[in-house]
Amino acid sequence: MYDTNILIIDDDTITLELLQVVLEEITSGKIISFSDSKQALDFVNSSQMDSVSLVICDWLMPDVSGLDILAALRIKHSNTPFLMLTANATKELVVDSMRLGATDFIVKPFHTNSLLSKVERLIRDAD
């Protein structure tokens, strides 16, 4: 079990709830979640973001995209691991995300074991 605060951003509430339940298995830290991408962007730009060790974010959302959130995160938190969630892992998305500093990807629908494996690796690599 890790003592890691994780930020989850996804406009699909079912995916958001699933992520919360799965991540509670591996962290004793806080899991902060947003289904509203504008609110998530405000959080990323706030001082509260200083306590977050990992961001898991959907790519395609109304109002603010995952790429926009990633770009904002990298301004103040260049080393915070960022796991991009997407249902459409196109070459363009991968290139754009890597250019902006995404650490890894996971394609929806995902298997929980695959998600946990990636999350645990990102947490270990960040320490």
Distance between the first and last residues' Cα: 14 Å
- Oligomerization status of the protein chains: single chain
- What is the makeup of the main sheet? 5 strands, parallel
Shape assignment? globular
Q: Approximately how much helix is present in the residues?
A: 40-55%
CATH architecture: 3-Layer(aba) Sandwich
Q: Could you give the order of strands across the largest sheet?
A: 2-1-3-4-5
Count of folded domains = 1
**What proportion of the residues form beta strands (DSSP E)?**
15-25%
The CATH class, by name, is: Alpha Beta
SSE pattern, N- to C-terminal: EHEHEHEHEH
β-strand number = 5
SSE-based structural type: alpha/beta
CATH third-tier fold name: Rossmann fold
Query: Residue ranges: pLDDT <50 for 5 or more in a row?
Result: none
The fourth-level CATH homologous superfamily is Response regulator
Give me the Rg, rounded.
13 Å
Q: What's the overall average pLDDT, rounded?
A: 94
Counting DSSP H or I runs of 4 or more residues, the number of helices is: 5
